[in-house]
């Protein structure tokens, strides 16, 4: 529906079938990510090897899925825009306090570039594509097109990506990976994480999603084609709620995150269930 508007990096409107063999590999990487993340509660929130494995596996799954469904140019764009943009934003952030607020990384996440752990831009890569993919599904269900679709995609995609950080930031702060100098005021139930952090996330995510939406072709993808990023987003939502409620000792974060990220995740789940029922009904006719 939105393929005529998008500027695809690959030229042909439909992706080449010879790349479809990469989709099962993306599924394997996502399954491995889930397996690693299931181990997080057993280690009190995760160890460095588990954290590295989780981020690298899911970032690889996102990039590989894009290569399989939109072409290798789209995967490169994700790495450059989300990874490079995330690194730039974080480097400016730790140096100036803008746009997230004043914070500092410890040595807990390993190797740093420009004062930013290498894992951090990889984390932007791993969730930017799922956030954009699910946003496109929701915007498509709204029957929007043209400029309105692009504007809504940028705003909703920024929200979808920022909402994930409601779960991520408390977990990483509790693990001692970064420290906020001025943690108040904060979201209700999300202590020690300033509102400036989420304002900064919204700004950076808006720019990131808007650019990615421009350069990564939307085309006429079948619903099943984007099952990898959709599953990644829904898994992240439900597993984060459970982890904070049951294992991490942060029930208020679980509640606030469930509401904030649920604005995207719950309608998405409803949409996916309806689409699955429709496909099964069509197959049985």
From TrEMBL:
<dbReference type="InterPro" id="IPR007354">
    <property type="entry name" value="CruF-like"/>
</dbReference>
<feature type="transmembrane region" description="Helical">
    <location>
        <begin position="46"/>
        <end position="68"/>
    </location>
</feature>
<keyword id="KW-1133">Transmembrane helix</keyword>
<keyword id="KW-0812">Transmembrane</keyword>
<feature type="transmembrane region" description="Helical">
    <location>
        <begin position="151"/>
        <end position="168"/>
    </location>
</feature>
<feature type="transmembrane region" description="Helical">
    <location>
        <begin position="118"/>
        <end position="139"/>
    </location>
</feature>
<dbReference type="Pfam" id="PF04240">
    <property type="entry name" value="Caroten_synth"/>
</dbReference>
<feature type="transmembrane region" description="Helical">
    <location>
        <begin position="198"/>
        <end position="216"/>
    </location>
</feature>
<feature type="transmembrane region" description="Helical">
    <location>
        <begin position="228"/>
        <end position="247"/>
    </location>
</feature>
<feature type="transmembrane region" description="Helical">
    <location>
        <begin position="75"/>
        <end position="98"/>
    </location>
</feature>
<feature type="transmembrane region" description="Helical">
    <location>
        <begin position="253"/>
        <end position="271"/>
    </location>
</feature>
<keyword id="KW-0472">Membrane</keyword>
<feature type="transmembrane region" description="Helical">
    <location>
        <begin position="21"/>
        <end position="40"/>
    </location>
</feature>
<protein>
    <recommendedName>
        <fullName>Carotenoid biosynthesis protein</fullName>
    </recommendedName>
</protein>
């Amino acid at each position: 529906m939105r393929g005529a508007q998008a500027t695809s990096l690959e030229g042909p409107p439909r992706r080449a079938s010879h790349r479809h063999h990469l989709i099962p590999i993306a599924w394997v990487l996502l399954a491995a990510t889930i397996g690693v993340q299931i181990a997080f509660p057993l280690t009190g929130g995760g160890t460095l090897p588990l954290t590295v494995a989780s981020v690298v596996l899911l970032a690889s799954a996102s990039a590989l899925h894009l290569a399989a469904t939109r072409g290798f140019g789209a995967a490169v764009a994700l790495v450059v825009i989300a990874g490079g943009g995330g690194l730039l934003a974080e480097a400016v952030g730790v140096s100036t306090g803008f746009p997230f607020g004043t914070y500092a990384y410890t040595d807990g996440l390993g190797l740093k570039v420009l004062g930013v752990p290498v894992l951090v831009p990889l984390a932007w890569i791993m969730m930017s594509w799922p956030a954009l993919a699910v946003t496109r599904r929701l915007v498509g269900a709204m029957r929007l097109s043209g400029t309105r679709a692009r504007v809504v995609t940028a705003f909703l995609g920024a929200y979808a990506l920022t909402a994930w950080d409601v779960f991520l930031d408390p977990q990483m702060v509790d693990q001692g990976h970064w420290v906020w100098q001025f943690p108040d005021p904060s979201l209700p139930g999300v202590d020690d994480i300033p509102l400036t952090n989420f304002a900064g996330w919204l700004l950076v995510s808006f720019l990131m999603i808007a650019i990615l939406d421009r350069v990564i072709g939307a085309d006429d993808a079948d619903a099943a084609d984007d099952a990898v990023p959709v599953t990644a987003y829904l898994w992240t939502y439900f597993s984060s709620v459970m982890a904070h409620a049951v294992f991490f000792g942060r029930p208020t974060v679980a509640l606030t995150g469930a509401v904030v990220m649920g604005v995207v995740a719950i309608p998405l789940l409803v949409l996916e269930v309806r689409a699955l029922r429709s496909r099964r009904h069509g197959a049985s006719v």
